[in-house]
Amino acid sequence: MPRNTSINSVLIIGSGPIVIGQACEFDYSGSQAALSLKEEGIKVSIINSNPATIMTDKVVADNVYLLPLTCESIEQVLQEQQIDAVLPTMGGQTALNLCIEASNRGIWDKYNVQVIGVDVAAIEKTENREEFRQLMVDIGVGVAKSKIANSFLEGKEAAQEIGFPLVIRPSYTLAGTGGGFVHSKEEFDAALNRGLHASPTHEVLVEQAVLGWKEFELELLRDKNDNVIIICTIENFDPMGIHTGDSITVAPGMTLSDKCYQEMRNQAIKMMRSIGNFAGGCNVQFSVNPETEEIIAIEINPRVSRSSALASKATGYPIAKIAAKLAIGYTLDELQNQITKTTSAYFEPTLDYVIVKVPRFNFDKFKGANKELGLQMKAVGEVMAIGRTFIEALQKAAQSLEIGRAGLGADGRQSRNLEEIMHSLEHPSAERVFHIKDAFELGVPLESVRKATRIDKWFLVQIQELVHLEQELRRYQLSNIPRDFFMTLKQKGYSDQQIAWILGNVTEDDVYARRKELGINRVYKMVDTCAAEFPAHTPYYYSTFEDENESIVSDKKKIIVLGSGPNRIGQGIEFDYSCVHGLLAAKECGYEAIMINCNPETVSTDFNMADKLYFEPVFWEHVREIIELEKPEGVIVQLGGQTALKMAERLEKLGVKIIGTSFKDMDLAEDRGRFSDLLKELDIPYPKYGVATTAEEAIKVANEVGYPVLVRPSYVLGGQGMSIVINDEDLENAVVKLLNALPGNHILIDHFLDRAEEAESDSICDGEDVHIIGMMEHIEPAGIHSGDSSAVLPPYSLSETVIKKMEEYTVKLAKALNVRGLLNIQFAVKGENVYVIEANPRASRTVPFIAKAYDVPYINIATKVMLGANKLKDFKIERKLTGWAIKEPVFSFSKFPEVDKKLGPEMKSTGEAIRFIKDLQDPYFRELVAQKSMFLNAQ
């Protein structure tokens, strides 16, 4: 049967600001769903408060409402638009909770809006821990022994009945918030209180803890005819006890027997069919006893999830796109498989490769945080790698993380402290996978590692084999490594950098040249859904070392856009937004647009977004070989944050054209010392400064410029390592810490302008003209990182004199730095004096905010300027903002209750929201201004 023709207008609810546990995977899902519905001629409206996403862009939806995610905002949309249906399954737990609240208030009934993609009653069944447990018992699916508790006394009784170890699971929370393991009676009271307070319904499930069991996730789709297919089976490398968002995961499942897998499939399908009559996507999590293969259900989420984005990228099957079409009435057999274009969507993907997801953590931003992993998610992002084998994909994932690792060890970063290593194996942290390899290098027996980690032996054997390969490699010199063995090393995921480190007397370039001599080249394989059983038509590739290359190079002019890698604090979804617009602009200019990125959560890695997608680490060796294969006209590094910028120097040395501002000029802006010299030449005021390479030099400089001083390294993003100090002792400590973390880096010592205001400008320069796209005034004073500051667009209290100085300095700097494209400048304002703090000739986190506030596609314009396709005068730019727009940072401190929440020069926010006000008497705005006074008084 065709789709439901009564649905002509759909509202999609977004997930709001990025927080730990709910990140840009919902930007991807929401964007894909919106485009899918528009293909059917359906008018799409989106409500979301996140300005940094593609989802809230006019290229995605017909109507975008940048409003707080509340029932009042929902009513505003329903009053202004004729909405037939609401799709709440694309915005994570936030959207589902809002959908339930609107339903309970009778809003959907009042405006005659049907809920599609999920049954509201089903949400209650899945989120209420007792209802879920009882439902599983009723349908014959195993669950852990448990009891529900709505009070402290009930919780104590449940614990006494079940026995330790236990797990506390609060109802209606996101990413395990408030949950945790309890190993003894002494820990229980505090954990129970924490869980009861975290649940909005003051309800927890006290459950038997199946520590050490295996964990699996299945991604399912179901249509209105009750047809169900399994899109992907994902196995957690880490056993039960670690939140899936913090676990290394692998697809397809590596250690499942066929009997267990078939039983798990059957149970998952039974579970999905039991939670109401709806069509759409679903995520099911199971635990499996490694000894008996007994299966118990952990939870079911009747919505797309973090794992849905991963499964989509892993299989090439666009889950959100198909789920949106199922929600409006199509059946799976009526829809086309997006990869083969010849088979139907009622076709379960088959993988002839392995994907590995590794989470990215940012504990360096949360000093004093408990780094041990458990039920509460702590990762801020993730990477995905694709290889022919598990170990190849794991090494590629390690290279993708951007934590200074060249793979899984063999890079000079290994630990040799056996006590530290064994503690890490028993107490999981971000470093555990690396410490497993370190343990094997120190001779720890495999069985001891297995007992300490409870990780399946199969995975451990794969890692242990690397140690044997490295021992073998040390017998050779670069000149006499046998070709077959060299090929084996590359097939096991070893980077040239790792091989050089193991050999000890050669460089990465030497290794690269030698393997090229031997004819050992990376080839590219197409990602398809059918293990090549049917021809695939998707330009989506990963690299490996074999004979046949499936990436056919066209004769078109090409542009490569370098992505921003994993999300982290200081480099988030706003850079993916920029990359997507860069791709679209390059295509509009007639180029073949090629994307390189490794983040499975993002829109830029949707295979429909670029002309060609390489799902590869943004790691020099990988980028270099793609460039050598594709031979582009140039590479855009300006849109991918610090990840892409760090490659500019090597690209220039390789003779690759950098599109837009040159490396030389970007480097001048990044080198804080040379940049201050430029400001002096231009007669632009700046804080007194000096550059130091040792603690002794730093103290001398600080006494010359005067305390307090701002201490910061060059070439960093997100305020990494910045601090404000007031005496020699604090300065010495800060500098020593920085030099240990970033050896060889120059340290800039600035006089800190206390009690100054902060402001910034964003602009585009085409080499002749400069267009200032926005000026913002910060609510918080100078000394708080701009990413952690609320910012008002346009300025609300700066004098005309100050604004004119900011404009003058922006134009001067854009021309002096030979900017082609984007430029962000940060200012300190004291009285009527304006000082330049820094300039960044690249995309910034504020450009998407300005673009949404003014409703102008600034990244698109900037990219066309970078490409030389247009001059600024070619664009007629009309701003639509009436009143003011406010960018407000959002934090995830609830995940780290033990850390200092005080804000300073190092960024800590995980996301941002946008709010519009019509006048400065708005109560929300007046409260922010009151905060500013509080900050200034504190200084």
From TrEMBL:
Q: Report the residue ranges that make up the ATP-grasp domain in this protein.
A: 133-328, 676-867
Q: Which InterPro entries does the record associate with it?
A: ATP-grasp, ATP_grasp_subdomain_1, CarbamoylP_synth_lsu_oligo_sf, CPAse_ATP-bd, CPSase_dom, CPSase_lsu, CPSase_lsu_oligo, CPSase_preATP-grasp
Its keywords, alphabetically, are: ATP-binding, Ligase, Nucleotide-binding, Repeat
Q: Which domain of life is it from?
A: Bacteria
Q: Looking at the keywords, is Magnesium present?
A: no
Q: Which reaction does it catalyse?
A: hydrogencarbonate + NH4(+) + 2 ATP = carbamoyl phosphate + 2 ADP + phosphate + 2 H(+)
Q: Does the keyword Ligase apply?
A: yes
Enzyme Commission code: 6.3.4.16
| Entries under NCBIfam families matching the protein | CPSaseII_lrg (TIGR01369), PRK05294.1 (NF003671), PRK12815.1 (NF009455)
The UniProt entry, under PANTHER family, shows: CARBAMOYL-PHOSPHATE SYNTHASE [AMMONIA], MITOCHONDRIAL, CARBAMOYLTRANSFERASE FAMILY MEMBER
Q: Which family does it belong to?
A: Belongs to the CarB family.
* Name of this protein: carbamoyl-phosphate synthase (ammonia)
What lineage is on file?
Answer: Bacteria, Pseudomonadati, Bacteroidota, Sphingobacteriia, Sphingobacteriales
